[in-house]
Amino acid sequence: MIKTDAFNARNLRKTVLDMAFSGSTVHIPCAFSLIEIMAVLYRDHLMVGESAMDPNRDFLALSKGHGVMAQYACLYELGWLNETDVRNYFADGTRLKGLSDAHVGGLEVTSGSLGHGLSVGVGLALGCKLKKTKQQVYAIVGDGECNEGAIWEALLFASHWKLDNLCVIVDANGYQAMGPTDQVMNLSDLGAKFKAFGFDTVVVDGHDEKQLNKSFEDFKTSKNGRPKAVVANTIKGKGVSFMEGDNTWHYTRLSPTTYQSALKELGF
Amino acid sequence: MREMFSEILVQAAKANPNLYLLTGDHGYALFDKLRQECPDRFINSGVAEQNMIGVAAGLSKLGMTPVIYGLSAFIPIRVLEQIKIDFCYENLPCILIGDGAGVVYSYLGSSHQSTEDIACLRAVPNIRILSPADKYELKACFELALTAKAPVYLRFGKADLEDIHSQQPQVQWGKPISIKKGRSDLAIFATGSMVAPAVRLVAEHYKDACLYSVPFIKPMDVAEITEILKAKKNVIVIEEHSVLEDLVLRWLKLQLRWRVGRE
Fold first, then answer.
1. ipTM above 0.90, yes or no
2. Of A124, A149, A160, the CB nearest to B61
């Protein structure tokens, strides 16, 4: 938990913009939909420990690896990434990639190929149970990622093994690579699906930090043998009006003009 | 061989409190002894192999030792990407067991035939591929695999019921095991279930040939094998695997390299 004023959604979004602009990279909106979730987790809930590999840390498995810039922004606030990492994002010879990579301290899983990170998170949760530790495991999946069969295998397993130290967060931003999720592969009522799989499930506004905070607080205190799910309804590209609801920004790079406009909208 | 596997698994579980067996609802009576003696180390992950590999990777990240069992048509083939990304990319230790390798289950249908596992895995970085010929090699390979600090795939078939050795052989990563020396121009290399037929082949038709068992498909001691090839004019390779990308091809490449080098 990092209690600093600087650790807020506005600053995190700025770091994402800085990285995406300096690296001339894509996937900004799917990082923006995650920002409040990440901010609340890192600021108020996650026991991150002294270093990235602290054996007693809580685990945050970012299964939707495309949103990794949101997590980089948190690691930057933690001081585990520095100014050079941000400014040289994507430059030849640097270590940060465009998808979550477990070789980077602070990232627990290698993802991008979807449907992997949740299972690894489930394994971490099972391992913590077997070792009888009090560590919590958070796994963030995308709604588009829920097309993957492996996600549903993992949910079955987590429920069967009573992993109440696991909290699955769905960043339900309503879009996937080629369009709205309800048009590409309709997931209909995601909350009902998680409930049917044996999860204590809440559906929240994924940009409302109070609601998120309460959900994670409930997760940490309710140890009843059932895993938890937080279906967070979010807006892809949240925070920058011209990105919100425009899925072409999934693949669009910032120009100097759009970079400045985006910063301005965030109040910089 | 399966009885031996059952025994050494129980021994290993007793010796290492962090060892867990995961199965995708395969194995039936194979794990009776483990379930009896170490019931909390048995994890039936259900018919859901993709998730099983990810879960095992999570355990491995916590320093535990997952032994993951399946039919080789599924472990590794169905979950090749999970093995590549969840285990091999981070070089996380595990032992993957592919049972029924080769054509042994072909009578059930093509879904259970497994003649691509070696070819597919060999291209994946970090993973080691072991193919023991009998129960003694299996024990030696399994003990070595436990010390590997890397992902290991151990393949065995049901056909290999005969013993090749009378006791546990000395094994070293990458080295073929000499089964029989011979003075003729012929060297025979066999792996896994094909070593026993190779022994009969030598006894009946090629009495002067030398015979090697090849339990290490990867890593392979190229220098040592090249030395053997230099001394022999003809080579026969026998394995229960597709010829499209197999040991034969590997050997031909080695031979080619040696011949080019010699010229």
1. yes
2. A124
